[in-house]
Amino acid sequence: MESNTRFLKRHIDIGPLFTDLYELTMAAAYIKSHLNERATFSLFIRGFPHRRNYYVAAGLEDVLLELQNLSFSASDLAFLKSTGYFDDQFLTYLKDFRFSGDIHAVPEGTVFFAEEPILEVSAPLIEAQVIETFLLNTIGFQTLIATKAARCIHAARGRTLIDFSLRRTQGIDAGMKVARSTYLTGFAATSNVLAGKVYGIPISGTMAHSFVQAFPNEQAAFRAYAAVFPEKSVFLIDTYDTLEGARQAVRVAKEMRTDGAALIGIRLDSGDMVRQSRQVRRILDQAGLSDVKIFASSGFDEYSLARTIDQGAAIDAFGVGTKVGVSADAPYVDIVYKLVRYADRNVRKLSPGKQTLAGQKQVYRVLDSDGRYKADFIGIRHEDPQPGVPVLISVMQNGRILGELPSLDSITKVFRNNFENLKEQFKKLDNARAYPVHITAQLAELQNLTKMP
Amino acid sequence: MESNTRFLKRHIDIGPLFTDLYELTMAAAYIKSHLNERATFSLFIRGFPHRRNYYVAAGLEDVLLELQNLSFSASDLAFLKSTGYFDDQFLTYLKDFRFSGDIHAVPEGTVFFAEEPILEVSAPLIEAQVIETFLLNTIGFQTLIATKAARCIHAARGRTLIDFSLRRTQGIDAGMKVARSTYLTGFAATSNVLAGKVYGIPISGTMAHSFVQAFPNEQAAFRAYAAVFPEKSVFLIDTYDTLEGARQAVRVAKEMRTDGAALIGIRLDSGDMVRQSRQVRRILDQAGLSDVKIFASSGFDEYSLARTIDQGAAIDAFGVGTKVGVSADAPYVDIVYKLVRYADRNVRKLSPGKQTLAGQKQVYRVLDSDGRYKADFIGIRHEDPQPGVPVLISVMQNGRILGELPSLDSITKVFRNNFENLKEQFKKLDNARAYPVHITAQLAELQNLTKMP
Questions:
Q1: Is the CB of residue A88 less than 8 Å away from at least one CB of chain B?
Q2: pLDDT attached to residue A448
Q3: What average pLDDT does the structure give for chain B?
Q4: What are the residues whose beta carbons fall under 8 Å from the beta carbon of B78, sequence distance 6 or more?
């Protein structure tokens, strides 16, 4: 697909200079020290932020596509030379740089927990090091949003959710990734047209207050819209007075019916959603328009979704925006990428509060007899016997992606399956029980064996 | 500059599909209704989030570059056709679409306040409407970060700040814009190498714990680094034990001195920053290394910067990361774009809690005799006599950028000048006084004259 390629070039294949300077200065020192043996880095999230109890993995596709094509352009090298940091020996090394490593990772859409490795890179030390910043940024952000979105899906109890966040995401790339990360958890659509084009996500939209204002009155605005979108109209009814707006919508909806068209819904965007939605539902029902749906948008997140539904709002679909698009109550995760093995030696870090587990690892998930998740074990990569189902799989070997990248819809299925198997007690918005994550005896033993310098 | 153009293509010239669907469906309805007279939209931020008391404008450069080149590609049009929303008449209109409007805006780096218009677009209704999402996203995010960064600059009281946020920003574009938005408020450098290349921002970096771990011991790691960067080394000393790390650094620093080199500094990245920095300072001073600086990084934001400095930390430079890169305590602003005039008629919206001021506006700033800011007046665009210095200027006419875009360094000067003229009482992190913003009699009068539909 031409368009897709163009988008990837613009937004994902951003090149190896999207990195912290120290990744490159360390690489230069490694070259000089002839220190470039095989290393393994482990990527995981420390702890849970505010009220979180699980994570949903996202971002792997971007990582794999970028790594498979990573190289320094002539202008990248010219810039690096101009900084005065790097000598010609190192720049020559970078000229031929390619990522040739192996990656194990949890598939996108997988539910996982704090401290569990979700991606491990094994490669010559320098290759594994210089990709750190990009990996953390990409996996961290998309996982953050997929997690927030999953909480909304849970709170919405089957009601339709639509991503309306584009105007308030933290930049252009974020706007694209929020559309993708929310869709993979079960959002039905996005308002982001470019995400429709690039990712094939269904797009959805209504009208703005400015549209209503541009006409002499609401009725004229609704009629004009219905004339162009006889089967796709949702009228915004709160520009002046919501209940009066509902009555105007009813009038136009009846005209539409006469013309063989059908109003899809009306939208509320301000005020008391519970009370107004019920009043508007009554107006619609009394007019014989019980098939006209009520859309609502107004700063929703998982908490207000749950509350609004609990209080009996007559809302069929929610436009979910800003607070989900930036994960407002927890706008970052403490995602880290740590050296766990170098030159056949397992290594760990002992800085206060920042300890790491040495060694190449695997997460093993223990299932109940009905397939639901009981507990996870963080173990060494090849335990025998395995204490559960391995969660990380091999996704890249020698710098090449293994197999086909999963489609977005198949990722959505992975998520749905995972989420169904996570019991309610671990998903609750409040007072959720901590999901049990243990360390296997073999991994614990390996920590004791790990020599300190 | 080739590299710059390439970057803009990748990250800024993202095209008109980066928009909410409703911008395009409304446009289609306007076309059908022959409703495309001149409109003015006003962009402003409602209120202040948590603890904010002022804003710093950023993002205008991206807006102007994008608007000057906005057009629908053949593949954009093919995609829109495939959605089934749009007929050929509208697609033909889009084929020749260009932005031909006028823009008034506050220059980047300007300090401004809630409710003040900071950008006004006057153009045929459709042109002004379809750019809404992009404008809000771009100005909103960069202003959010510049504001957070300004608070850090204020809290740091002259100490050096460096942007270390790249690994935790909300996506790729955010990583670039955070480097730019923090630099324009006075950050000294960024760790983001691509921002160095694209924006010419100084780049800075030290080393990671993994670097120290890849060597048999700290001394070997420090020596190897110093051999490659004899004039640019900052040693990370907390991988195992901070004070012992400091002593190892001293040993290598003395060797460097013998070789005619000089250690720039050491970095602390964990633990009690106040206590450790003072202990390390003592170790360095006692070794005759009082010129070696202490860098610190560990989740800093304006609050912890102020606290750490208040408590007497011996820290010369701070690496500021995640919490600033996502504006963690307030990760979005309530930025809106409202129709205020259409076809020579001033318009306003009356939805509960979402009222707008009709008419084309200007912000007038009243200065003290010493040039410091006393109060602002939101007025109509051309008041006579002017109640103060106009803050918005004309930046685009008939779709063309007026004059040269200011350099990033000149934007930094605009900010510095603005920030100096904002009195301390309005800048304090806690209990800051609300800066007085009034509405002029002429603007108030215009509201009364504005006919409701």
A1: no
A2: 83
A3: 93
A4: none
Q: Does B169 touch chain A (CB under 8 A)?
A: yes
Nearest of B134, B159, B96 to residue B11 by alpha carbon: B134
Give exposure, B418-452, as e/b (b: 16+ Cβ within 10 Å). bbebbeeebbeeeebeebebebbeebeebeeebee
ipTM score here? 0.95
Which residue type, as a one-letter code, is found at position B96? D
**At a CB cut-off of 8 Å and minimum separation 6, what does A81 contact?**
A91
B162 forms beta bridges with B189, B319
B298-357 residues touching A, CB cutoff 8 A = 322-323, 325-328, 331-332, 335, 338-339, 342, 347, 349-354
Q: Nearest 5 degrees, angle CA B61-CA B66-CA B69? A: 130
Give the pLDDT mean for A155-173: 97
Question: Contact A19/B232, CB-based, under 8 Å?
Answer: no
Q: Which residue in A14, A225, A453 is closest to B10 by CB distance?
A: A14
Give B-chain residues touching A30 at CB under 8 angstroms.
Answer: 211, 214
B168-218: pLDDT as tens digits: 999 999 999 999 999 999 999 999 999 999 999 999 998 998 899 889 899
Of B22, B203, B453, the CB nearest to A217: B453
Give contacts of B269 with chain A, Cβ < 8 Å.
351
A137 with B32: Cβ contact below 8 A: no
Give yes or no for a contact between A305 and A153, defined as CB atoms under 8 angstroms apart.
no
Cross-chain CB nearest to B29 (options A172, A204, A225): A225
Query: What predicted TM-score, i.e. pTM, was given to this entire model?
Result: 0.96
Contacts of B204 in chain A (CB under 8 A): 21
Residue written as tokens 């007025």? B379
A213: confidence class by pLDDT, cuts 50, 70, 90: confident
Quickly list DSSP for B212-231: HHTSSSHHHHHHHHHHH-TT
Tell me whether residues B232 and A85 touch, CB distance under 8 A.
Answer: yes
Domain A2-145+330-449 listed as CATH 3.20.140.10: yes
The H or E element that residue A92 is part of is helix A88-95
Domain definitions of chain A by residue range: 2-145+330-449, 154-325
Contact yes or no for B106/B119 (Cβ under 8 A): yes
Best CATH choice for the domain A154-325 from the list 3.90.1150.200, 3.40.50.300, 3.30.470.10, 3.20.20.70: 3.20.20.70
The CATH class given to the B206-297 domain equals alpha beta
- Angle B250-B256-B262 from CA coordinates, rounded to 5°: 90
The partner residue sitting opposite A168, judged by closest CB among B224, B232, B332, is: B332
Cα distances (Å, whole numbers) of residue A352 to A346, A451, B165, B305: 19, 18, 21, 20
Among A137, A208, A225, select the one facing B175 at the smallest CB separation.
A137
Tens of pLDDT, residue by residue, chain B (453 residues): 333 333 333 344 478 999 999 999 999 999 999 999 999 999 999 999 979 999 999 999 999 999 998 999 999 999 999 999 999 999 999 999 999 999 999 999 999 999 999 999 999 999 999 999 999 999 999 999 999 999 999 999 999 999 999 999 999 999 999 999 999 999 999 999 999 999 999 999 989 988 998 898 999 999 999 999 999 999 999 988 999 999 999 999 999 999 999 999 999 998 899 999 999 999 999 999 999 999 999 899 999 999 999 999 999 999 999 999 999 999 999 999 999 999 999 987 666 566 789 999 999 999 999 999 999 999 999 999 999 999 999 999 999 999 999 999 999 999 999 999 999 999 999 889 999 999 999 999 998 877 554
**How far is B121 from chain A, CA to nearest CA, in Å?**
14
Distance between CA atoms of A274 and B390, rounded to whole angstroms? Answer: 44
Cα first-last separation, chain A = 52
